[in-house]
Write a structure and sequence with these properties.
Elements: E1 11-17, E2 20-31, E3 42-48, E4 58-63, H1 87-93, E5 97-101, H2 121-135, E6 142-152, H3 154-164, H4 172-177, E7 189-193, H5 199-210, E8 215-222, H6 224-227, E9 232-239, H7 242-262, H8 280-298, E10 309-312, E11 315-319, H9 321-328, H10 345-349, H11 362-366, H12 377-382, E12 399-403, H13 414-425, E13 430-433, H14 446-456
Parallel strand pairs: 4-5, 4-6, 6-7, 7-12, 12-13
Antiparallel strand pairs: 1-2, 2-3, 3-5, 8-9, 10-11
Helix pairs in contact: 5-7
Bound molecules: 3,4-dihydroxybenzoic acid.
Amino acid sequence: MGLTFDKNSYEVKSITVNGEDLVYRAYEGIPYVESPQSELQVINIYIPEKSPYKEGRMPIFLPNTVGGYMPGKADTPKVWEDGTPNSLVQALLRGYMVAAPGLRGRGMKNEKGENIGVAPADICDYKAAVRYLRYNKEHIPGDTEKIISNGTSAGGAMSALLGTTGNHPDYEPYLDAIGAVKERDDIFYASCYCPIINLEHADAAYEWEFFGLWDCHQGKYIPPEHTGEEGKWVPVVRQMTEEQKKVSEELKNQFALYVKNLGLTDALGVPLVLEEEGGTLRDLLCWYILQSADEAVKQGENLEPYGWLLARGGEIVAMDYQMYIKYRTRMKDTPAFDKFNLTTPENELFGNTVHERRHFTEYSHKHSCSNGEMAEPLQIKMMNPMEYVSDERAVKAQHIRIRHGAIDRDTSVFIPLLFAVLLQNNGVSVDLAYPWGKWHMGDYDLEKVFDEVDSMEAYK
Ligand code: DHB
């Protein structure tokens, strides 16, 4: 097989960060499958000159750059204009090996005009990259039993999938088709920032959360060339139609039923449900949000202006859920993910070689105004980490870390919560937090990820 890593074929590079030079070996643009469909299916490997880890014991940081389910190029070490290092530089500074693969995504076509980035192309590429590393474990200084995936939003979904579907046979034919090596593809640790997951239930979750809020608040970026001033975000508010309000109610009701059927419990064994005016799942969400507020107070934030929080003796003790949701504001109109006219990123994700866009919920398929087709159940399943949590054939990461900003409205706050509880109920180590003041973004506390990885095993 021509996929043997050549450890002698590198360039020495360096980057200045915080006034110091970080020196590393760069192996860039290496194909990680035998039959790539695109130039994007390459991996960049970086090895720091200085590391506290012994040869063969370096943790391997495996970031992806997928956003909006679009193609994500193999990343490179960068320091942003304000001096902050990107995730790769942060990992190299900690002495980790970095392996950054490019993953296919929606919108990609081959020369025959066929769609080659539709699901499950992105996650299969991610898995193939893991297999490539294991195949070459004798040739790299990294420890292939310490692979840490990381991504944000759709990239967070990739990380969540990698962390929950290790070695599952569903993906095998797709991995065969691209010429992935025959190796395990389970990983050690999945870091998932605001993962956009559970897409087939995300419309219902969105309406359970935002039903009754009919203004959609979306920002719009005005570039400097239009105004002669600095680029800026301006608020855009749109109103939902009467028809959308009816749809919202139907979807909202679906969600409570879905939650009931999941049969989840909290740590004490109490069933987690949603009722018209609350329910134990909503209470659990509030517990997480209060934790977030508490943490913000500890960091010195003044939370007095937040009228939905109740403080006693300097401590946050309660919150008004409805006011919290109003404060978050609705961003997407109904349905949020599977649009009747097939216009979302997710509709394109669920295309196939010939169909550009398809539905992935029965509800929107039934209401399609574009005569849209429905994606196959297996394609939908392969994009949903929830589907693999209780499946023993899917090897789980030893730890899954989920962060969803407390003001992130790209998906409902209940989506990461259900994922975390399902993992917990199935004995998978997981931690979830809704960081205060964070919207739809990632990588803001990667040092904690690295600290945690280091503390999981003292093996330097
Ligand atoms: C992303 C954001 C979305 O709102 C969405 O529906 C899918 C993906 C993203 O930022 O990756």
